[in-house]
Amino acid sequence: MVFPEIKISDAAQVGRMLGASWESASTPFIRLHDDVAISHVGVLEIPMQLMGQNIIAGGIHAVCTHPEYRRRGYYREIMKEVLDYCNSRYDTLVLTTAQPELYQPFGFRVVKEHIFIAKSDSVGSQGFRLIDTSDPNDVKLLHRLLETREPVSNIVGIVNEKAVFCVNEGRNPLYYAPDLDVIICMEIKDTQLQLFDVVGTRICTLAEILERINIRIQEVAIYFSPDCLNADVQALSHILDGDSLLMVRGNFAAEGEKFMLPRSARC
């Protein structure tokens, strides 16, 4: 009801089918009216690498109140409970939003993000196949790589996280390169490659990815810091989807660096 454009029920069902449900990963804070949930804030744990250091961040997600019960203070009450819960557990909280004004009173601040553009003139050979999320062997492969993945970036990267990845990317095409043993989250629009995540025990270079795409690529847009890709890039200030602002509360070691929190890890 609150987020119809993202079809969150469908995304959550995909996460369950992939064996990484939000119900098992999220701690819900809820207000009820006659046993019906009317306001909710969820807290997820997101294992991250920031500037080469591993941390567990708290991810604030699915913040919503039933339209008929808004402006009664439920959201503020729940957020106070959430912060009391998180303050003793996490030094860093993250969320993404199109409405930063809702979170600034609670100590959250917007952190600038960047997209990275690389020029190319590449035509490779066919080296990827689509992951079949209905195939148990492919689901097992996905779990193995998510559990053992190397961070896609030493500036801001994700390690051993499944629930947010499966909800965010489970409905999108996932490409597997058997010889590299990596799963790539990518889209191709005309001659531009859009690169959203690389999941593997070794992060391959951009050249290795391009060598396995059998159409001409003239530009690559990278939606995470490409420090591990061995690529010549130009960094540009960017807001994902035009309104998905990253906000943090507490320590965030990568603040001031050029990076983007991967789409697969945004909540």
UniProtKB/TrEMBL annotation:
CDD domains: NAT_SF. GO terms for molecular function: acyltransferase activity, transferring groups other than amino-acyl groups. Keywords: Transferase. Residues 1-135 form the N-acetyltransferase domain. It comes from the Bacteria. This is GNAT family N-acetyltransferase.
